Amino acid sequence: MRNPKYYLKEILKEVLPKYCKGKVVDVGAGHAKYGWLIAPLCDSYTTVDNMSSDYQFKETEFRPDVVSDVSHMPFKNNEFDTAICTEVLEHVEDPFRLFLEISRILKPDGYAIISSGWAAAYHKEPKDYWRFSPDAYKVLCKRSNLEFIEARRKGGLLILLLYFVNRNIELNIKGHTIFKKLWSKISKVLGFFIEKLDQFIKTEDTLGHLIVARKNN
Which ranges carry the Methyltransferase type domain (predicted)? Predict the structure, then answer.
């Protein structure tokens, strides 16, 4: 099975050319794994992270341009044309505060591109607090002077089911090299067919969502 980040990357490939422009800030950028998609589309690209996650930084020399609490960033009001925040929202204690901060630093008519997990497994980076439906995103936008534009799903029901099966099998065969190699081959074959079938099943179930919102004047 593909890493769940693959499905987010594929959505970003479609969404970024449409909405990413001008002066861009990557909020909670980690090691800027999507920077290669973002940078060619904008005039400037600034990364921000508080560097609190060992998962993000222990094996890389990358450091964000700005080290800051993402809910209290040292930028002027109306400074950026686009704010991107991928897989961060579930890890902050106050998601309303983060949305307000993103809205504050965006110029009027600027775009926010935000993603988070919905049915993702518990993952501490460094903490894991929340899950968000499209309805929750609409409330967050409404309270932050943002107009909700669209939401996209990161895979459907079959991909979601395979994700949980794959994750639990991998957890239980740790240290068993032969079983790991065998399951790796099986999951790749399953993943190929499940991805083909997944697009034909009508469902709201998904690994997570990416939403686009625009700041009101």
Answer: 25-114
Cis peptide before 126 (omega within 30 of 0): yes
Query: What's 79-144 look like in SS3?
Result: CEEEEEEECCHHHCCCHHHHHHHHHHHEEEEEEEEEEEECCCCCCCCCCCCCCCCHHHHHHHHHCC
pLDDT digits (tens, 9 = 90+) for 32-58: 999 999 999 999 999 999 876 555 555
SS3 53: coil
CA 68 to CA 80: how far, in whole Å?
Answer: 16
Res 142: pLDDT: 98
For 83, list phi and psi in degrees, rounded to 5.
Answer: -120, 130
Q: How many CA atoms lie within 13 A of 49 on its CB side?
A: 26
Average pLDDT of span 183-208: 89
Q: Where in the sequence is the domain holding 163, given as residue range(s)? A: 157-198
Work out the end-to-end distance of the chain between its first and last CA atoms, rounded to an integer number of angstroms. 43
Q: Are residues 98 and 177 in the same domain?
A: no
Tokens of 159: 């991909």
Query: What does the pLDDT look like over 79-111, one tens digit per residue?
Result: 999 999 999 999 999 999 999 999 999 999 999
Tokens for 53, please give them: 């996650």
137 shares its domain with 178: no
What predicted TM-score, i.e. pTM, was given to this entire model? 0.90
Cα–Cα distance for residue pair 117/133, rounded to 1 Å: 9
Same domain, 89 and 176: no
82 and 165, same structural domain?
no
